[in-house]
Amino acid sequence: MALRFLGIDPETGDKDSPTIWIEEESGDLIIQSYRADALTLAAAAEVGSVPGHPTEVPEHETVIRLPARMLQFLPRT
Fold first, then answer.
1. Most buried of 33, 35, 54, 72, CB within 10 angstroms?
2. What is d(CA 1, CA 37) in angstroms, rounded to the nearest whole number?
3. DSSP letters for 9-26
4. From CA 75, how far away is CA 65, in angstroms rounded?
5. How far apart are CA 54 and CA 10, in angstroms?
6. Residue of 59, 53, 77, 69 whose CA lies nearest to 29
7. Cα(57)–Cα(40) distance, rounded to whole angstroms?
């Protein structure tokens, strides 16, 4: 797998480091960031997504919170 670094949180200190990479072949984004807290997960479940789609997060997935200041690193198509 060939990853290319796109950016790190410009406000990163010595310990936190939200980071974004892109997988070159697929174009998939690989994101390291803050795990969403219980309040955020509850709010997302309340809002939902597609009607009839379950709101539980499967064991093999997670929800992250990406700081808005990092949107500058997301590739535009």
1. 33
2. 30
3. -TT--SS---EEEEETTT
4. 18
5. 35
6. 77
7. 12
Query: What does the pLDDT read at residue 43?
Result: 92
Q: Tell me how crowded residue 21 is: count the other CB atoms within 10 A of its CB.
A: 18
pLDDT, one tens digit per residue, over 25-51 is 999 999 999 999 999 999 988 888 888
Domain ranges of the chain: 3-73
Q: Flag whether pLDDT at 16 surpasses 80.
A: no
Give the DSSP letter of residue 51.
Answer: T
Q: State both tokens at 62.
A: 């997670």
Residue-wise over 35-69: b if at least 16 C-beta within 10 A, else e? ebeeeebeeeeeeeeeeeeeeeeeeeeeeeebeee
